[in-house]
């Protein structure tokens, strides 16, 4: 219905407006959240060498330290997603950013490795809760025609934050020790909290659908996006059905059940590859005979390809069928992985960049895909549980690299094995488009 009739449908109204400075502010705040999230997630890897020297740690102990953070990420995602769908994105986003900031500061004071492992688990809980809410918040303020692209732009903050973790470690550790990196990882999110309190609104779609917020409150938010002319007692609506019951149960409603399982398969397989390559790619390339310095440079091409791929894939998902885009990208990623096993020299750098473009880029695109797939009433739960299940894949990926190296498998055979999860992800996302209702495409065209 139209505003002249006293009713305004939020989604169609947002789709008719230009992307405003107010919406850019929301996107940039969420970008900042995932940037500090990326910093805190990655920093433990950068401090590991100094930590290992100071406390004389074995590689197995470092593995437990890394794994504790990943398990915390999984717990946080599974816990805070349903909570955000019940009490709001803004409250949970601000609370989790403060939570992992404080936990990082406490980690910097840890006197023993056992306490540091426990505090990294606690930090991971906050990190795991923040990211799905940032994705959902961005998605719910974007017009459908630009939703995938803008969501992937926001998510690139994670890559930037991860890289800054390495820069900070290189600058701080020689002068101030490894604890200083954790202090920065705690101070940055805590500085962001008052900015979020002052400048971050609640999702207007959530307010209309789930909270039945007053017309005045909704109108004030919409006025910041574009001039709004509606009667004083206008009624705001969202063309979605509010599902009853637990948000987790909604993921398994008949219309979503098959898609939920297939999306979990995609995230499990995708994050398995992402974390395997993030942790082990330099070592794997070095094991093939390449000098370690050159192997590290080749590994950087994976991150470069991932950033470019996220932006290109996000744009293509807005212009074409998002299921087809992701399925094709994962399939090409499998081919690039096979090619990496037989490539040498410059071609090896090119194939690694192709792997990053297709696999890492598709994983970021998959976050936008899930944000479109589920309705407002269970969106954060859908995103967070997909990421939570994916974290199981990330833990396995971190372990698989060591097992493959220990098995002395040939370089071509090793990457052919790693290509299998990419092929499975391609098939799963293709099946999601065929077996589940075409909700993603339908919402993109709405």
Describe the structure.
The chain is mainly alpha-helical and 446 residues long. 81% of the residues lie in helices and 1% in strands. The protein contains 17 helices and two strands. The protein has helices spanning 10-16, 21-55, 59-87, 89-108, 113-141, 147-176, 179-199, 204-211, 215-223, 247-250, 257-287, 292-319, 322-342, 345-373, 379-406, 411-435, 439-445, and strands spanning 7-9, 235-237. A two-stranded parallel ribbon has the order 1-2. Helix 14 (345-373) packs across helix 17. The longest helix is centred in the first third of the chain and has 35 residues, at 21-55. It is globular, with a radius of gyration of 22 Å.
Structure, briefly:
This protein has helices at residues 10-16, 21-55, 59-87, 89-108, 113-141, 147-176, 179-199, 204-211, 215-223, 247-250, 257-287, 292-319, 322-342, 345-373, 379-406, 411-435, 439-445; strands at residues 7-9, 235-237. The protein is mainly alpha-helical.
């Amino acid at each position: 219905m139209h505003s002249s009739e006293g009713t305004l449908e939020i989604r169609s109204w947002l789709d008719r407006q230009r992307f405003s400075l107010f919406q850019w502010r929301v996107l940039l705040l969420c970008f900042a959240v995932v940037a500090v999230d990326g910093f805190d997630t990655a920093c433990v890897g950068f401090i590991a060498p100094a930590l290992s020297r100071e406390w004389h740690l074995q590689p197995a102990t470092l593995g437990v330290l890394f794994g504790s953070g990943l398990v915390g990420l999984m717990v946080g995602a599974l816990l805070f997603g349903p909570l955000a769908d019940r009490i709001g994105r803004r409250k949970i986003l601000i609370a989790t950013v403060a939570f992992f900031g404080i936990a990082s500061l406490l980690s910097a004071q840890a006197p023993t490795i056992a306490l540091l492992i426990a505090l990294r688990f606690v930090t991971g809980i906050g990190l795991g809760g923040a990211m799905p809410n940032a994705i959902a918040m961005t998605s719910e303020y974007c017009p459908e025609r630009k939703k995938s692209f803008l969501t992937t732009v926001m998510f690139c903050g994670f890559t930037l934050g991860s890289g800054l973790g390495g820069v900070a470690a290189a600058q701080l550790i020689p002068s101030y020790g490894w604890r200083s990196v954790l202090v920065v990882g705690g101070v940055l999110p805590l500085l962001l909290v008052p900015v979020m309190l002052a400048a971050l609104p609640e999702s207007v779609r959530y307010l209309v659908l789930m909270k039945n917020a007053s017309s005045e409150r909704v109108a004030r938010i919409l006025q910041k996006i574009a001039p709004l002319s509606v009667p004083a007692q206008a009624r705001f609506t969202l063309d979605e059905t509010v599902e009853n019951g637990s948000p987790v149960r909604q993921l398994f409603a008949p219309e979503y059940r098959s898609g939920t399982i297939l999306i979990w398969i995609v995230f499990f397989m995708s994050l398995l590859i992402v974390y395997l390559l993030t942790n082990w790619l330099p070592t794997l390339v070095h094991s093939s005979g390449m000098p370690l310095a050159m192997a590290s440079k080749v590994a950087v091409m994976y991150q470069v390809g991932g950033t470019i791929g996220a932006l290109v894939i996000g744009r293509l998902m807005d212009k074409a069928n998002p299921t087809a885009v992701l399925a094709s990208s994962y399939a090409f990623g499998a081919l690039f992985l096979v090619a990496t096993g037989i490539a040498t020299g410059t071609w090896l750098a090119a194939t690694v960049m192709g792997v990053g473009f297709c696999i890492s880029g598709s994983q970021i695109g998959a976050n936008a895909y899930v944000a479109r797939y589920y309705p407002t009433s269970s969106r954060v739960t859908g995103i967070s549980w997909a990421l939570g299940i994916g974290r199981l894949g990330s833990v396995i990926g971190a372990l698989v690299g060591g097992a493959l190296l220990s098995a002395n498998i040939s370089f071509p055979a090793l990457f052919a094995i790693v290509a299998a999860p990419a092929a499975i992800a391609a098939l799963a996302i293709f099946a999601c488009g065929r077996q589940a209702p075409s909700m993603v495409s339908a919402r993109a065209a709405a």
